[in-house]
Amino acid sequence: MLLRAHAAIWLNPGTGGTLGRLLISSVRRASVVVGLVLVAVIAPTPAALARGREPQMRVLLLENTQLSLRSDGAQPLRVQGLPGGERRPQRLQLSLQGTRLSANVDGRSMALRPSTLLTVQNDDPRGIWLGSRRYRGVLRISGRGGRLRVVNSLGIETYLASVVGSEMPHRWPLAALQAQAVAARTYALKQRSRGGAWDVKATVASQVYRGVESETPSTLQAVASTRALVLVHGGRLIDAVFHSSSGGVTEASGMVWRRQHPYLVSVPDHDQHSPVHRWEQWFDPSGLRQRLPETGGLQAVEVLSRSGSGRVRQARLRGPRGSLVLSGGELRKRLGLKSTLVSFEMVTGGQRPPAAFPVRSGTTQASSGSRIDRITAAVARQGPGRPPLLVAPPPVLVSKASVGRWSGSGLQLLVKGQGYGHGVGMSQWGAHGLAEQGADFRAILQHYYRGAEVVPYRPHFDPSLALKPPTKPLWREAQVSPFGPVSLSFAAPLQ
């Protein structure tokens, strides 16, 4: 009754006179104390809130018939799904042969059902070894189509620290790394809405992710300093695609894919210092016959149409057995070209490349999963500081393996090209060039994604992810230390 009377007086300050005012003051102070106690008891810890609120990514690492996992140091693996409940081995080896799934747990062999789902994690902040690489978070292993599928589940900010270091040399200017972080975050969150057993692949099919080995203080700083920032257009997450180098001008999305986005238009690039800004590629008669069996080789190339940026949209290839019409993308795939911003020239068999062309060992083709291809990585390794800017125009890259074949008989194809990749969205070498000129990451992103805004992420930016639009971003900015790595997955929650 007394508490009820106190509450009535607190809710109605006009009653009770002096005594009432004293009671009001007492009740208010008691309410504050009780409220603080309840918050302390009921509210989750900051770490729990951060883990719950930070979006989780599911990354398809690999599909193989054999896997080898191990812990690093004193922290064992925690494996769920094996017979007998959770096990804590140092090593786990899996083999799938047809429908027979077997496991070797610290030297002990056991047979498993092909439908077995294993979950592997540990408490080691250095992650779990999978083959020759370490990964943070949780590894989920299942059998699909005669192969073992490994999906890595982890917080998006931890994921991005590796993505940035896998997609760009870590010695590049901070503004370029920050632009890559925001673009990669936007791309990843956009992919979460598509459903399925995983969100993104760890290869160039999505964006490159190499686990712990690609994390550096600079990539951690780039991710932490742009924490939760994404690119939005018209209240929706954009398709934040990017590529290595455009060759001077980017491409509109409608020229490469079916849909033309208002923010993915052709813009001037700043990649003149890129090693692949200009390049040449030669094809001898035997190589052309192998790549073009329908026509029996190549005698002439007729470009039927080009986009506004100059890229080949459609071309007719004529050979001894007939002709073949290919799109620019199909032509690039057939010939293994770096881009479709190209021109063609048929030359006689006795002609050799100019002597001034430097010859590189190996091939000019970059393997998948490299930092802006192997060429970019090679430039980044020059010297302890930032990679040097090359004098424009850069030298033409020529393969040693091709030199000996240029003197053969028959018509040969000379392809002169510019850039590397599909050319849509942000040019990574262009971002580097703008950063060297003093542009910050917002200016870089707004140059390549026209009309897009850089804002904190909210679920209603993508309706497929939204339940109820919050008033604040889901995960807050974290303090950045210039002296070492920053823990990204367990940052303090929003205040």
Provide the descriptors you would attach to this structure in a database record.
single chain, 495 residues, alpha+beta, six-stranded mixed beta sheet, six-stranded antiparallel beta sheet, 12 helices, globular, disordered C terminus
Question: How would you summarize this macromolecular structure in one to three sentences?
Answer:
By secondary structure, the chain is an alpha+beta fold. Helices cover 26% and strands 24% of the residues.
Which segments are poorly predicted (pLDDT under 50) over 5 or more consecutive residues?
1-16, 32-52, 354-368, 374-408, 467-471, 477-495
**Strands across the major sheet, in which order?**
3-7-10-11-1-12
Radius of gyration: 29 Å
Shape by Cα distribution: globular
Q: How many beta-strand runs?
A: 25
Q: Please give the alpha-carbon distance between the first and last residues.
A: 37 Å
Q: Average pLDDT across residues?
A: 78
